[in-house]
Write a structure and sequence with these properties.
The complex is a heterodimer of chains A (153) and B (385). Chain A has 153 residues and is α+β, with helices and mostly antiparallel strands. Helices cover 24% and strands 39% of the residues of chain A. In chain A, the strands form three sheets. Chain A has a six-stranded antiparallel sheet. In chain A, strands 6-8-9 form a three-stranded antiparallel sheet. Classes of the chains: A alpha+beta (153), B alpha/beta (385). Chains A and B meet through helix 3 of A and helix 5, helix 8 and helix 11 of B.
């Protein structure tokens, strides 16, 4: 049962937890104020689709200004190899260096130790948990068709 | 101190990388047949005396396919402590090799990765980092674990001298389970099952077990069979309390596929509290086949592959009939106190990385209380505790 602090989006039999204490971006990253910066990571929905993360590489450097949807990195998982794009325009302040050595926190603690990077001077807005969940619900059927019955693995 | 090291791959059927650990165990054993033995987790859970003796008398090298660390969870569940651990995810990053995308038959990258893991195993064997400690003996009558579901298990835990710190095994059935139970009691008639969970025995040493696993893959993955309507259940993940596998076990009726007369799949389904609705047995379908033959080739033999294909074809009508006629309500199951906690199991065993790419456990105060009593050197049989 979800607590009052979170929503649940059901991906088949998998419960993707969406904490209410942060915002969400269209590219399935969460964002949360962290001191002077905004911290980003993958939502449980994204982690579930990706499954085990093997490699994470960044193609930009700390301190770089990036524009919205700029190609910033690359991830390889047990399900897919995918490019990563900036969820907002702004300055990339810091990457989670620990993930470059061991990306397993993305799978084990995506809302905590599995954070990806921090940004400042961001432009643009993100959704709250309810809005993000509504987006997932609207696109879920198409996502399932794309996955062709492999959703449970 | 035994000369043999027991290789314990996580060996699940769910993930591709678990099949990498299987293959790596085969390769390592083939390279060092006198120095190694392979542990079959399903047989261990089903109460096989030989597998129990292996972990009781030899140091165990755990090979974890992914960060869920199911093999370590299983060892904790049965009261054993690993002597060392290899994490395939670390080798993936070091070698930039991935397991590939197919679990029925590994792709070239998965085979390369398995070879790299086997080489890491060989390195650990050469290093001989094994502490002079052994695993505990666990009683296997009835429920083998000390938990609230079966008082007989508590008696066994006292007999083997388990410390009160094993209270984690006596956790109450989770609130989640209780909610499912209430729902079940309230339902007038269960709805038709939305799918099936196939539980192959998925052993690693007997030919019939290898065939059962491949058969489950055929049934779940082939387009002309039960694709989208059935999923294979991983024994290691179920025992380790991985939520997704627990969901499959609880939310769908289980069909046990037994590769040999040990009937491990049927026993395991019963062990965790939700018996299979049907058990199908290779040795009955193909009585002339020597299903208990030891088979340790990295690839299935042509005969094994052919039998898996034939058995899947043979089972299909029966399983389709089950799909349309079985009513099912999610059931509560017995966790035996196990909660999947990958970070916690790491801390529990105190794994410390070495410079050679494997981890060694380090006894904390809590783990010392959990630590088994070593067998007396001159004992002809495992010590009575």
């Amino acid at each position: 049962m979800p607590s009052a602090d979170e929503l649940i989006f059901w991906m088949g039999k998998f419960a993707a937890v969406l904490p209410r204490d942060r915002g969400y971006c269209r590219n399935h990253m969460w964002c949360q104020r962290h001191g002077d910066y905004w911290r980003y990571g993958f939502s449980s929905y994204a982690v579930r689709l990706m499954q085990d993360v093997y490699f994470l590489d960044w193609h930009v450097s700390e301190g770089d200004l990036v524009h919205y949807l700029q190609h910033i990195g690359h991830i390889e998982t047990s399900k897919a190899t995918a490019d990563l794009f900036a969820p907002s325009a702004g300055r990339l302040v810091r990457f989670n260096q620990a993930l470059l050595q061991d990306p397993s926190p993305i799978n084990l603690d995506n809302y905590g130790a599995g954070w990806l990077f921090e940004m400042s001077e961001i432009q643009g807005e993100c959704w709250d948990a309810e809005q993000y969940k509504a987006y997932l619900e609207a696109t879920w059927e198409e996502t399932q068709r794309t996955l062709k019955g492999d959703i449970n693995r | 101190m035994s000369e043999k090291v027991v290789l314990a791959p996580c060996m699940g059927v769910g993930k591709v990388v678990a099949n990498v650990t299987r293959r790596a165990a085969y390769l390592a054993h083939a390279a060092c047949p006198e120095d190694t033995e392979i542990l079959s987790i399903p047989a261990l859970l089903a109460g096989d005396a030989h597998e129990r003796q292996l972990i009781n008398e030899h140091p165990v090298l755990v090979i974890e396919g992914c960060v869920l660390r199911c093999a370590s969870h299983v060892l904790k569940l049965v009261g054993a402590r690993p002597a060392a651990k290899i994490e395939v995810s670390r080798i993936i990053r070091e070698k930039r090799l991935t397991p590939g995308r197919t679990r029925k038959e590994l792709e070239a990258s998965g085979k390369q990765l398995a070879q790299a893991v086997a080489e890491r195993i060989a390195l650990a064997l050469v290093d001989e980092p094994w502490p002079d400690t052994l695993s505990s003996e666990v009683g296997w009558t009835g429920c083998p674990f000390a938990c609230s579901c079966d008082s007989a298990a508590e008696k066994q835990s006292r007999e083997v001298g388990m410390e009160p710190t094993m209270a984690s095994r006596n956790q109450e059935v989770s609130a989640d389970n209780a909610e499912v139970e209430d729902h079940r009691l309230a339902a007038a008639e269960p709805p038709l099952a939305q799918g099936l969970t196939l539980l192959p025995c998925q052993g690693i040493k007997r030919s019939g077990a290898r065939i059962a696993q491949r058969t489950a893959y055929h049934l779940c993955e082939d387009e002309d069979k039960l694709l989208g309507k059935a999923q294979p259940l991983c024994v290691s993940a179920l025992a380790a309390g991985v939520p997704e596998d627990v969901h499959y076990y609880r939310d769908f009726p289980t069909v046990a596929l037994n590769g040999c007369p040990q009937n491990c799949a049927t026993k395991i389904a019963e062990l965790f509290g939700i018996p299979a609705v049907r058990s199908v047995n290779l040795y009955q379908a193909f009585p002339e086949y020597p299903c208990e033959t030891r088979s340790l080739e990295p690839e299935l033999t042509p005969q094994e592959s052919e039998l898996a294909r034939r058995w899947a074809e043979q089972l299909l009508p029966e399983l389709r009939e089950l799909l349309v006629n079985t009513r099912w309500q999610p059931r509560s199951h017995c966790t035996h106190g196990m909660v999947n906690d990958p970070s916690g199991i790491e801390r529990f065993f105190g794994y410390q990385p070495t410079s050679h790419g494997y981890d060694l456990p380090c006894l904390s105060a809590e783990t010392r209380a959990f630590a088994p009593h070593p067998v007396e050197a001159n004992s002809a049989t495992p010590a009575q505790r």
